[in-house]
Design goal:
heterodimer; A: alpha/beta; five-stranded parallel β-sheet; 10 strands; 41% helix; globular; B: 482 residues; alpha/beta; Aldehyde Dehydrogenase, Chain A, domain 1; Aldehyde Dehydrogenase, Chain A, domain 2; seven-stranded mixed β-sheet; six-stranded mixed β-sheet; 14 helices; 20 strands; 37% helix; 17% strand
C-alpha cells in the first residue's frame, strides 16, 4: 500500500465564546456559513453570556487602568500573530493591520480616559468635588457586518478598556473572524467573561439581549434593519438600558474613531468630599 | 428640652403681582391656546387658586416648535457665542435682581418654605445661568470636539418639585450651546416658568429662542413626540422616563433622562452624630422630600442606632411645619392632593407591612395639603417603602453591621441617583464612594448642588448629566456622536 503523501488538515469547530470557554450552543444548533457549521446561539446562550459578563465585571472594572491597558496591548500582540489566519478569512490585510493598531490605540486610553473625561469641579463651598467616570456595566453589542474584524474590534475594544464587560452578537453572515478573535482574546490574559461572543441570528437573540435586566447598555451598530433597531430600542427602554443607535451613514472604520465609543459607556460619579481640619 | 416659641414671620406676598390669567409663551409673546383650554394653578398651602393658565395642545406645541426652529435657523444657532453669552449673563442678572419676587412666587405655587426658595432655589437658578453663560463662547475648549455645534431644537419637560431650578438646568446649557427650546413646566407649578418668560422679554432675548408651553402629560407627550424636536430632556418619574425612551426609539432624537431615586444615607459609627442628624433631616425633609435625590433610606450602623434615632427624634420634634411664606418654616405644603394621596398610600403600606411609623407631635393646618415628617423603623429591604420612591417627607430606617453590608444594601435598588456617607474617616469616604453605584455621592453633607457639579443617575435613575462641563455634552453635536 502506497504511503499517503498529503496530510489531512484538522478542521476547526467554530463555537461560542462564553466565560472564557468555547461551548457549543446549548440548543445543539448550527447554521452554515461558507460551508462551515457555525454555532446558532439561543436565548439560553444569551443568558449564560450575560451571567458570565456580570460575574466578570467586579474584577475587571476593579483592575487598575494600567493593568487593563497591558492586557489590551497583549491582545494586539496576539492578533498580530494571527495576521495570516485573518487574511485567510478574507478580512483584508489593511483591515487586519488597522485592527491591530486599533487595539493598541485603545489599550493606551485605559489610563488616560479618566483624565480627559473626569473633572475637579470648583464648587462654592468647602468640598473637594470630583467627577470621575466609571464603567456602565454589562454591554450588549451587535457587531457590524460590513467589517467583521476591524468593525468588531472597533466596537469591543472601547467598551472593555474602561472596565465594561460585553456580550457580542457577531456579524451574522461573517462570524468566522469573530470566533477567531475570541481565540485571540482567550490567549491574551483577558479574563474569562469580559468578552463573550455569540454567533447566530440577531433577529432571534437581539430581543433577549435588549430585554435582559442585567444588561446596562446596548450598542446597535450592527443592526441594519431600521424596524428591528427601533424594536430593540423600545425593548431596552423598559429597563432604561442605554442605547446607541445604528449609525445614520455607513461608517468608515479606518477613520479616527474619537472618544465617543468609550465615553457613551461611562457613568460619571460626582463625590462631594468635605474639607476640614 | 426648652421649647422656643416663634412669632409668625411671614414674607410679604406683595412683592409678587400675579395676574389672573397667563397665556402660552410662544415666539416671544403670550398667546391663548388654539383650543382655548386652560387649567388652574393652586397654592397647595391654602388651596387658593393663584391663576388660570392656558394649556398647550398639540397645535400649540407645533407652533412653539416652529418658532424654536425658526429662531434656531435665523438667529440663535448662528449667533456668535460671545453674544449668546451676554444674553445669558443678562438673564442671570435679572434673576438675581428679581430674586425676592421669584422666591415668593415659587413658594406660593409650589408650597416649599421661603427659606429654601430664597436661599437655595433662586440663587442656584441665577448661578446656573451665570455658569453656562460663560461657556457659550468657550465650547471648543470643553472637550467635546474642536468645532462643536448645537443640536437644534430641544424639547424639555420638567417636574414640579424645583420649578425654576429645573428650568434653569434645562434652558441654560441648551441656550449656551446655541440650541433653542420648547419647555413644558410641571402642571401644578407653571407660574415661575411664565415669569421666566417675562424675564426673557425683559432681557430682549430674540423671539422663539425660549418657548414655554404649560400643560399636563398630554402636552409633554406632544413636545417629546414632535417630529421636529432634535433633543429631548426630561426630569421626572422613572415610569414616564421609560415611556419617553420607548417613544423616541427609531428616531434620531437625542435623549437625557433624570428620573427617580431611593438614595441611601449611610451613617457609620464614627460619624459626628449631631452633624449627621442635621444631614439626615436635610436629606429627607428638604423640600418636603419632593426630591429625586432625597436620602430616603437611612442606613445606620447598629452600634450607634439608638443614639442616632434618639437624636433624630429630638431634632424632628423641633421641625416647624406650616405656612411656606413664614421664614421660620422648615417643612411646607405637599405640592398637590394627588401627591399627598401617593404619600399616604405608601405610608399606609409601610405600616401594613409591619414597619413602625413615628412622627413628632405636629399641628397641621386645616386647609391645604400637609403631611407630618415621618420615619419608619423596623424596615427591611423587602418592604415597599424601602424600594419605591415615596417623594415625600417619609424616611425608612435600616441598619447594617459592616461597611460591606452598607454598600450592598445601598446598591440594592434599581435606582442609582445619589447617596450619602457620614464618617470622620476620609479614606472610608473614598473607599465607600467608590463602591456605590450612584451618580452623586455626598460625604458629611447632603442635597448640595452647584452649577459646576454634574448631576445624574446610574441604572434606572436615567442617563445623561446636567450641570458642569458634562452638562454641555447633551446639547452639542460633535464628531463623537454617531
Amino acid at each position: 500500500m502506497p504511503e499517503q503523501t498529503t496530510r489531512l488538515a484538522v478542521r476547526k469547530t467554530y463555537k461560542l465564546f462564553i466565560g472564557g470557554r468555547f461551548p457549543r450552543s446549548e440548543s445543539g444548533r448550527t447554521y452554515l456559513v461558507h460551508d462551515t457549521n457555525v454555532a446558532l446561539a439561543s436565548r439560553k446562550d444569551i443568558r449564560d453570556a450575560v451571567v458570565a459578563a456580570r460575574a466578570a465585571a467586579p474584577a475587571w472594572s476593579g483592575a487598575t487602568a494600567y493593568h487593563r491597558g497591558q492586557i489590551l496591548y497583549r491582545a494586539a500582540e496576539m492578533l498580530e500573530g494571527r495576521r495570516d489566519e485573518f487574511i485567510a478569512l478574507e478580512c483584508g490585510a489593511d483591515d487586519v493591520d488597522a485592527a491591530v493598531d486599533r487595539w493598541v490605540w485603545y489599550a493606551g486610553w485605559s489610563d488616560k480616559v479618566a483624565q480627559v473625561y473626569g473633572n475637579a469641579n470648583p464648587v462654592a463651598g468647602p468640598y473637594f468635588n470630583l467627577t470621575a467616570p466609571e464603567p456602565t456595566g454589562v454591554v450588549g453589542v451587535v457587531a457590524p457586518d460590513d467589517s467583521p474584524l476591524l468593525g468588531l474590534v472597533s466596537v469591543v475594544a472601547p467598551a472593555i478598556v474602561t472596565g465594561n464587560t460585553v456580550v457580542v452578537l457577531a456579524a451574522e453572515n461573517a462570524p468566522l473572524p469573530a470566533v477567531t478573535l475570541a481565540e485571540v482574546l482567550a490567549t491574551s490574559d483577558v479574563p474569562g467573561g469580559v468578552v463573550n461572543i455569540l454567533t447566530g441570528r440577531v433577529t432571534e437573540t437581539g430581543g433577549w439581549l435588549a430585554s435582559h435586566a442585567d444588561v446596562n447598555a446596548l450598542d446597535l451598530t450592527g443592526v441594519t434593519d431600521p424596524a428591528l433597531a427601533a424594536a430593540l430600542e423600545q425593548t431596552a427602554a423598559q429597563t432604561l438600558t442605554r442605547v446607541r443607535r445604528p449609525p445614520g451613514l455607513p461608517v468608515d472604520w479606518h477613520a479616527d474613531p474619537g472618544v465617543g465609543r468609550m465615553t457613551w459607556l461611562l457613568e460619571t460619579k460626582t463625590v462631594w468630599h468635605p474639607k476640614g481640619v | 428640652m426648652p421649647t422656643f416659641e416663634y412669632a409668625p414671620a411671614p414674607e410679604s406676598r406683595a412683592v409678587v403681582d400675579i395676574r389672573p390669567w397667563y397665556g402660552l409663551f410662544i415666539d416671544g409673546g403670550f398667546v391663548e391656546s388654539a383650543e382655548g383650554d386652560a387649567f388652574k394653578s393652586v397654592n397647595p398651602a391654602s388651596e387658593e387658586v393663584l391663576a388660570e393658565v392656558a394649556e398647550a395642545g398639540a397645535a400649540d406645541v407645533d407652533a412653539a416648535v416652529r418658532a424654536a426652529r425658526s429662531a434656531y435657523q435665523t438667529v440663535w444657532g448662528r449667533m456668535p457665542g460671545r453674544e449668546r453669552a451676554k444674553y445669558l449673563f443678562r438673564i442671570a442678572r435679572i434673576i438675581a435682581e428679581r430674586s425676592r419676587e421669584l422666591a415668593v412666587l415659587e413658594s406660593l405655587d409650589n408650597g416649599k418654605p421661603i427659606r429654601e426658595s430664597r436661599d437655595v432655589d433662586i440663587p442656584q437658578v441665577a448661578a446656573h445661568f451665570f455658569y453656562y453663560a460663560g461657556w457659550a463662547d468657550k465650547l471648543g475648549y470643553a472637550g467635546f470636539g474642536g468645532d462643536p455645534r448645537p443640536v437644534g431644537v430641544a424639547g424639555q419637560v420638567i417636574p414640579w418639585n424645583f420649578p425654576l431650578l429645573m428650568l434653569a438646568w434645562k434652558i441654560a446649557p441648551a441656550l449656551a450651546c446655541g440650541n433653542t427650546v420648547v419647555l413644558k413646566p410641571g402642571e401644578t407649578t407653571p407660574l415661575s416658568a411664565l415669569r421666566f418668560a417675562e424675564i426673557c422679554q425683559q432681557a430682549d432675548l430674540p423671539a422663539g429662542v425660549v418657548n414655554i408651553v404649560p400643560g399636563a402629560g398630554a402636552t409633554g407627550a406632544a413636545v417629546v413626540n414632535h417630529a421636529d424636536v432634535d433633543k429631548v430632556a426630561f426630569t421626572g418619574s422613572t415610569e414616564v422616563g421609560r415611556q419617553i425612551a420607548a417613544s423616541v426609539a427609531g428616531t434620531r432624537k437625542r435623549v437625557t433622562l433624570e428620573l427617580g431615586g431611593k438614595a441611601a444615607n449611610i451613617v457609620f459609627d464614627d460619624a459626628p452624630i449631631d452633624q449627621a442628624v442635621e444631614g439626615i433631616v436635610n436629606g429627607i425633609f428638604f423640600n418636603q422630600g419632593h426630591v429625586c435625590c432625597a436620602g430616603s433610606r437611612l442606613l445606620v450602623q447598629e452600634s450607634v442606632y439608638d443614639e442616632v434615632l434618639a437624636s433624630l427624634k429630638r431634632r424632628m420634634a423641633t421641625l416647624r411645619v406650616g405656612d411656606p411664606l413664614d421664614k421660620n418654616t422648615d417643612i411646607g405644603a405637599i405640592n398637590s392632593s394627588a401627591q399627598l394621596e401617593r404619600i399616604r398610600t405608601l405610608s399606609d403600606i409601610g405600616a401594613a407591612e409591619g414597619a413602625e411609623p413615628w412622627s413628632p407631635p405636629c399641628e397641621l393646618p386645616e386647609r391645604g395639603y400637609w403631611f407630618a415628617p415621618t420615619i419608619f423603623t423596623g424596615v427591611t429591604q423587602a418592604h415597599r417603602i424601602a424600594r419605591e420612591e415615596i417623594f415625600g417627607p417619609v424616611l425608612s430606617v435600616l441598619t447594617f453591621r459592616t461597611p460591606a453590608e452598607a454598600v450592598e444594601k445601598a446598591n440594592n435598588t434599581p435606582y442609582g441617583l445619589s447617596a450619602g456617607i457620614w464618617t470622620e474617616k476620609g479614606s472610608r469616604i473614598l473607599s465607600v464612594a467608590d463602591k456605590l453605584r450612584a451618580g452623586v455621592v455626598w460625604a458629611n453633607t447632603f442635597n448640595k448642588f452647584d452649577p459646576t457639579s454634574p448631576f445624574g443617575g446610574y441604572k434606572e435613575s436615567g442617563y445623561g448629566r446636567e450641570g458642569g462641563r458634562h452638562g454641555l455634552e447633551a446639547y452639542l453635536s460633535g464628531a463623537d456622536h454617531a
